[in-house]
């Protein structure tokens, strides 16, 4: 993708994400009880207020503290109660400036969904302020009891057991249960203390955030998974689709992504770049170009390309691991497959070996992360992305989730059909969800917002492939999809808002975003 187009798109992503909670959207939470329904309706219908305040900062002084002070003075909800304060969540740099995310706190505890996001331009001015704070003086708020604090771990464990929910075991130290406490507003006049926990369903198909009150009752829930594939995912190009080489993509020319590798300890590895059908310029089903239960063929092996990428060598034993500042290959969920290692700086696998998917995902994710950084975006704010390339209980699915139990971005790739991590489109799509979340934590809420996220991630995947080859680049998931296993998707469409919004599929709605692409 050419740098001018990439810069514009990632700038667009920042602008969208920073104000993304403005419109009320539908939610995935079930309407099984009156209190759950009422709370869900209230939270999902709250709108953020946007401000353009270029002269708010005195003398253009822009630091986290001066920005917080200016925001406190400007927003009435933050200066009417001495128990209210602001807590800095993150600061991200981009070519546009600096982007700060704050959360409103009450007696030192974060208020759920009480977010304030401020963008500071290069002149030291607040170019955008998004406000979703609460007026605590209107609400009946009971003091936070010591017992509630002390019993956090027990209450969470009991809720998980009762509902047969699972928190994945992680090598990282889990956050303290006390960090799970939030103040939840159920309406403008009522607020209650809750525990916040994220867990998987017993069948591992969903990853959901739950809010639990003092009685152990579920008060609110929200789906946190970003699936690559789902029912209603469109494949076919609509009959009124635009012609090939639509203006939105004309600026993206093939380029050598390996130029974005960073200095460090490098390994040699063999990958698909971006996938075997693209480099061979073949259709699925051509001689040797089929999955056949992950079997090697001379034709597929011949499509491997040798690359170099920064990795980590254990100084104690000399073993090389697929880890660097941006990405780490991990074992997160079943099926169990230990991440590939090597006694030498060479990772030479074929697709029938589990190490091939590890290397393929590691290379493409690292390359894309470096590419985004080369444009001036520090979107991950120093957070490493963890990838398990043999996951999803073997299903034909890939997901991104931000696991706030462990403060990690987790991407899981399934092995059903064609192994998802063999296709750069799947890898880049899921990484796009991580980048979007990093730009605006907890903003991906509601059907239309989720559809926008899917559209962005499909575009990033298609543009990445076009940066390597023009061959059928508009087919998203070129190798993993468009075959008997998965229908795949296509970036061409002429959908229009709002009549083409789908009540059944965020993936169908995501087609609308195609019309918002910049023209070059």
Could you characterize what this model shows?
This protein is an alpha+beta fold and 520 residues long. It is built from twelve helices and 22 strands. The chain has helices spanning 3-18, 34-45, 64-74, 76-79, 146-150, 152-162, 276-280, 298-302, 354-374, 424-439, 447-466, 506-509; strands at residues 49-53, 84-94, 97-106, 109-121, 126-131, 181-185, 191-200, 207-212, 218-223, 226-227, 266-271, 305-310, 312-313, 320-321, 327-329, 341-342, 346-347, 385-388, 398-403, 408-413, 475-476, 489-490. The chain has a five-stranded antiparallel β-sheet with strand order 1-5-4-3-2. Helix 9 (354-374) packs across helix 10 and helix 10 packs across helix 11 (447-466). The chain starts with a helix and ends in an 11-residue tail after the last helix. The model is unreliable at 18-32 and 231-263 (pLDDT under 50).
